[in-house]
Amino acid sequence: MDGEMDPEITSLFMDFLMWEPVDLMLMKKRLESAPPLDGNPRPKKVFLLLSIKAKILSGNISEEILDHLEMIERIDRSQCLRITDSMNQAYCAVALECTAKYLAVNWDGNSRYLDAVNRIWRGRIANLEKSKASKLVTTDELRSRRDQVEAAIEDEEVANVLIATNSLNEAIRMIKVYLKEAQALMGISSLERECELFLERECESRFPVVEAE
User: Residue 51 domain-assigned?
Assistant: First the structure.
């Protein structure tokens, strides 16, 4: 049985996973066994990004991704970081997929679709709008999609348009775009940074700079 990893080592390891292609099962195993990551916002953000990455690799687009994106936004705002267009687009695409997927089952009297509309658009998103605490729900695209999912409740033609939309592939595509941009904005991994610092210290100790007299 694996021993519990030190939080600092876990942070470095997860940061490394974010930048390197790894086996999905290994990623899931380490995410599930990771200790709480308190304090430094970077490992928290990496943990959330890795969780999203693991979900899309398994083709699992769920409302938990919306939770993760909202938490990442709070972290970014606390660090005075800009909320990117790709993050807004990913959030909208996931919200749409988590709703539209129920239309493919049955349009007429589809209680699961109506439940999703109530839960995601009339609940989660409406509450975020009222709180004015999130930029994720302020885009024209999201407002347009909300009108569409609302109209699909009563209008079969609108519902058929949503059914024909490949919302799953679009959600996966937009999440990948966001993850790539988030990774680029975060810079090199903590593990790489630690290696660079180690090499710098080694060079300084072996080849000390001699000041001219």
Answer: yes
Count how many domains the chain has. 2
Measured CA to CA, the distance from residue 67 to residue 183 in angstroms comes to 19
Q: Please report which residue ranges of the chain form alpha helices under DSSP H.
A: 7-19, 24-33, 41-57, 63-78, 85-100, 111-116, 126-131, 140-151, 156-164, 167-186, 190-206
Residues 39 and 7 both lie in one domain: yes
139 token code pair: 């885009």
| pLDDT per residue as tens, the chain (213 positions) | 444 545 555 555 555 555 555 555 555 555 555 555 455 677 788 888 888 988 888 888 999 999 999 999 999 998 899 999 999 999 999 999 999 999 876 666 678 899 999 999 999 999 999 999 899 999 999 999 999 999 999 898 999 999 999 999 999 999 999 999 998 888 755 555 555 555 456 555 654 544 545
118: containing domain: 84-180
Among 211, 210, 145, 205, residue whose Cα is nearest residue 174: 145
Please give the biggest Cα pair distance in the chain: 88
